[in-house]
Automatic annotation (TrEMBL):
Residues 1-151 form the N-acetyltransferase domain. GO terms for molecular function: N-acetyltransferase activity. Belongs to the acetyltransferase family. The keyword Acyltransferase applies. This is Acetyltransferase (GNAT) family protein. The lineage of its organism: Bacteria, Bacillati, Bacillota, Negativicutes, Selenomonadales. The keyword Magnesium does not apply. InterPro entries: Acyl_CoA_acyltransferase (IPR016181), Diverse_Substrate_AcTransf (IPR051016), GNAT_dom (IPR000182). Pfam families: Acetyltransf_1. It comes from the Bacteria. Keywords: Acyltransferase, Transferase.
Amino acid sequence: MYTIKEADSPSMWQLTARLIHELAVYENLENLCSATTDDIEKLFSDNLLHALIAFNETGEVAGFLTYFYMLSTFRGKKIAYMDDLFIRENHRRNGLGKKLITAWEQIGRSADCCKLEWKCLTWNKPAQNFYEAFGGTKDVENLTYYKVIDK
């Protein structure tokens, strides 16, 4: 049994920052993860970042999901964008991912979003299968471009 809580306090924001770094290690991207706890706390306090954190019955952190809002000019509505979904290994394959992503979907519906959106690493086939089972559609018509503008 898991409980999902919104990250709504500085202590939860700090926990989210630690989990983001744990995810970066899992994805072998820790060299790209330069966000400090202060950076993450500022995103929360500016109401730009939101998170759901899952705890098991003993209070152990089992996983988390971060999201923020974008917009669709064509639809004139918000898009809920999931940036991170991570389940700690000993909590995988028992429905927690589905519980987190379903809770996020309900938030998107309540916020009158027109779409949920996220990315998935190309090597992460289990995640791709999970997202497709959730009803996600792979976007084969758009490419992602980016330009790093760090100082």
